[in-house]
């Protein structure tokens, strides 16, 4: 069976009819990605300005501060989602899979970083292991030998990767809560205001319905949700363009980084603390990479670069133009900026888009947990493949309902988008910071880039994300602790399971049975061979597991042919050897 492009096997480059098939297929996947990948990122205008101008920064609610905040949002969207993720990170897929664990799996293919020594020499003959002649300099080679030699360093690397995966899982909980609460909060702007309890009840009903839809699979959910997000993007683009022209066209000048310098010179420490709100404009960015297994890198790039990015920039520009003339509207900046004539249509589509926004990280959580399970870091769960054509489109029932329960608990417990936003920002920036570090290792050991280029990448994005992360850490007492608690719980589960997996593997390794002994033992047992094929699960790269000796000595008959099924680190897939 031919391999699909998602699995990392490139197709021949020739101007045949197949190129048109691939183009139409990528365009179709780009359309579907709106309903899964970009719902979260596209709904961030609901709460960014509100979360930025809180605390002591309320004393700086003037036109210059609004211009500075928009300039920060513009350059953050440009540098991190567009430059880092779309142009660079999406190229580091592991046979079509994305996310922090995919980067770790990719590293384990090209260096001996895995704590389970189950890689065979024959692996290097596979296409996924092929790369050009070594161009590594002495610095990168020394670093590689150091990492391979010291087990404690490799253990620390695994823990960091697990932490990133746990933060993504925590995102799956927090995203749903903040997106739905932010959307229904628009009802408080209307004449007939709902009470806090009624809003929370409405949000909980919507959340239950959202998680109940997951079993239909990414393909069906994407086709249902994609039109909603597309209409939403067109709506916020139109409203943003109208507000820019109507309220303050000079906001276009705020694209200049000069306004960022002016913003920090006037606000000082309060401006640095406000970055915890600014960073919410890129929440959901990690979903572009984590959801890569459900789509293709080209489809995700097309959707973001040509639709999502320009719509978001124009919306933030228009919202800033409105606030520069109506600073008192900052607590309800998005809904107040909507013209009265189109308020209700935009409110309805905003509510629907916020519901869809939760889909991005929920789907990414399924992919991350599948990868964790493949690397022996998560308990076995039922994985349902919901597509016949794309292997990465999956659904995990147990995880879906656990996420729903935790999400409802957070929604009922906090009832405040600002506090939930603090937890959201911390989880988001932690994952991005870890991804940057792993991308540096991928650049050195997989892509074999010059160490100077890799260092420049780490310094640029490490500095930007480090500043944002430091601002998010300040808000740990104001809700940020939720991300730490959730990630800590999942981290303990993963570490304990991986420890048990290593112990089991080492036991099998030291007690494996020679195949010649079994072949010589067969005739003396008088075992009846029956027609058929038997498959024996094993994690050993070579040799026969000890459990097989019990199998052949107890049943009265065994199949005529027996094969061993070896679970390998192969993009979360099972390979028959």
Automatic annotation (TrEMBL):
Membrane topology: Multi-pass membrane protein
Location in or out of the cell: Cell membrane; Membrane
GO cellular component: plasma membrane
UniProt KW Transport keyword: yes
TM annotation in the entry: 65-87, 157-179, 199-216, 223-242, 271-290, 302-322, 342-369, 390-412, 424-446, 453-474, 480-500
Main location: membrane
Keywords in alphabetical order: Ion transport, Membrane, Potassium, Potassium transport, Transmembrane, Transmembrane helix, Transport
Record function comment: Potassium transporter.
Protein name: Potassium transporter
Source organism: Camellia sinensis
């Amino acid at each position: 069976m031919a391999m699909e492009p998602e699995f990392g096997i490139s197709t021949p480059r020739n101007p045949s009819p197949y190129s048109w098939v691939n183009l139409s297929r990528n365009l179709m996947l780009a359309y579907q990605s709106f309903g899964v990948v970009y719902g979260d990122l596209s709904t961030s205008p609901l709460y960014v300005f509100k979360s930025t101008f809180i605390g002591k920064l309320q004393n700086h609610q003037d036109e210059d501060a609004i211009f500075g905040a928009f300039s920060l949002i513009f350059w953050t969207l440009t540098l991190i989602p567009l430059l880092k993720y779309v142009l660079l990170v999406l190229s580091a897929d592991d046979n079509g899979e994305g996310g922090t664990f995919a980067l770790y799996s990719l590293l384990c293919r090209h260096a001996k970083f895995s704590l389970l020594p189950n890689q065979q020499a024959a692996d290097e003959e596979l296409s996924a292991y092929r790369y050009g002649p070594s161009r590594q300099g002495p610095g990168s080679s020394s670093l590689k030998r150091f990492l391979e030699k010291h087990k404690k360093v490799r253990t620390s690397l695994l823990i960091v990767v697990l932490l990133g995966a746990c933060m993504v899982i925590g995102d799956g909980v927090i995203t749903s809560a903040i997106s739905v609460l932010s959307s229904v909060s628009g009802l408080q702007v209307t004449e007939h205001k709902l009470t806090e309890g009624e809003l929370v009840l409405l949000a909980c009903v919507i959340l239950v319905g959202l998680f109940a839809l997951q079993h239909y699979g990414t393909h069906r959910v994407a086709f249902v949700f994609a039109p909603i997000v597309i209409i939403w993007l067109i709506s916020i683009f139109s409203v943003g363009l109208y507000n820019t022209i109507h309220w303050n066209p000079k906001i276009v000048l705020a694209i200049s980084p000069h306004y960022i310098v002016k913003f920090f010179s006037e606000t000082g420490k309060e401006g640095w603390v406000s970055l915890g709100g600014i960073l919410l404009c890129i929440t959901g960015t990690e979903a572009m990479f984590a959801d890569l297994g459900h789509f293709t890198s080209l489809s995700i790039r097309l959707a973001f670069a040509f639709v999502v990015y320009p719509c978001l920039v124009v919306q933030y520009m228009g919202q800033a133009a409105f606030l520069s003339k109506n600073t008192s509207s900052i607590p309800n900046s998005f809904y107040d900026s909507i013209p009265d004539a189109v308020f209700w249509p935009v409110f309805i589509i905003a509510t629907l888009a916020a519901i869809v926004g939760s889909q991005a990280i929920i789907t990414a959580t399924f992919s991350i947990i599948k990868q964790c399970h493949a690397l022996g870091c998560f308990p076995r769960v039922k994985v349902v493949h919901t597509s016949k054509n794309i292997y990465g489109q999956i659904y995990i029932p147990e995880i879906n309902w656990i996420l729903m329960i935790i999400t409802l608990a957070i929604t009922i417990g906090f009832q405040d988008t600002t506090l939930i936003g603090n937890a959201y920002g911390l989880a988001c920036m932690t994952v991005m910071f870890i991804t940057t570090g792993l991308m540096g290792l991928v650049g050195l050991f997989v892509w074999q880039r010059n160490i100077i280029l890799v260092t420049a990448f780490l310094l640029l994005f490490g500095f930007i994300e480090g500043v944002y992360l430091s601002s998010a850490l300040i808000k740990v007492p104001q809700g940020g602790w939720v991300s730490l608690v959730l990630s800590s719980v999942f981290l303990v589960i993963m570490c304990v399971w991986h420890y048990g997996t290593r112990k089991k593997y080492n036991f099998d390794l030291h007690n494996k049975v020679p195949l010649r002994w079994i072949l010589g033992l067969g005739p003396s047992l008088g075992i009846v061979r029956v027609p058929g094929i038997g498959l024996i699960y094993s994690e050993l790269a070579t040799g026969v597991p000890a459990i097989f000796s019990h199998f052949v000595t107890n049943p009265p008959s065994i199949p005529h042919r027996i094969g061993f099924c070896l679970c390998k680190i192969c993009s979360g897939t099972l390979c028959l050897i």
